[in-house]
């Protein structure tokens, strides 16, 4: 089974992102891409504003800050919480992208080979195989390159992956 959402990606190196924050803007770009998809009118904030509102730093965005500060930004109508791979699949099946954080540094998995060492990305789909789940992600671009959709093995990366869902509060 394969699910891929039609989500418009964004590069953290786009001209509208302040040059001084581009190298550490993957978390705010992920939040921007997710809210652009979830809100019919689009995201009410720029990536630069989200960088400050979420409490991003030059070394990145901590998961607890993403959750705590997105709750403040979105208000009580939205649930922002960590989630499991099963919840990731449920969110995607319901048309909602999920934030994924790759982090080998703060999980003390320095020697492994992973899709990214440290990076936030929007998960926009998945495909289950007999022995793995492949996640379809927007990679948030690079210098002089738009965001591209890539597929990443969950099995190879699960020890450094964490996820955050954003869904309407019931």
TrEMBL record:
* Domain Peptidase C39-like, residue spans: 5-133
Question: What InterPro entries does UniProt report for this protein, alphabetically?
Answer: Peptidase_C39-like
This one is known as Peptidase C39-like domain-containing protein
Question: Which is an annotated Pfam family here?
Answer: Peptidase_C39_2
């Amino acid at each position: 089974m394969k699910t891929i959402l039609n989500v418009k990606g964004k590069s953290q190196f786009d001209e509208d992102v302040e040059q001084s924050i581009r190298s550490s803007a993957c978390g705010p770009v992920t939040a921007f891409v997710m809210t652009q998809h979830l809100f019919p009118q689009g995201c009410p904030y720029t990536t630069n504003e989200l960088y400050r509102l979420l409490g991003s730093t030059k070394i990145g965005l901590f998961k607890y800050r993403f959750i705590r500060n997105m709750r403040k930004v979105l208000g009580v109508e939205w649930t922002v919480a960590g989630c499991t791979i099963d919840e990731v699949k449920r969110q995607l099946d319901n048309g909602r992208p999920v934030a994924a954080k790759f982090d080998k540094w703060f999980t003390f998995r320095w020697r492994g080979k992973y899709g990214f060492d440290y990076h936030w990305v929007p998960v926009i789909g998945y495909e289950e195989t007999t022995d793995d789940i492949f996640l379809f992600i927007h990679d948030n671009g690079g210098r002089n390159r738009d965001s591209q959709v890539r597929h990443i093995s969950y099995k190879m990366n699960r020890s450094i992956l964490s996820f955050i869902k954003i869904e309407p509060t019931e």
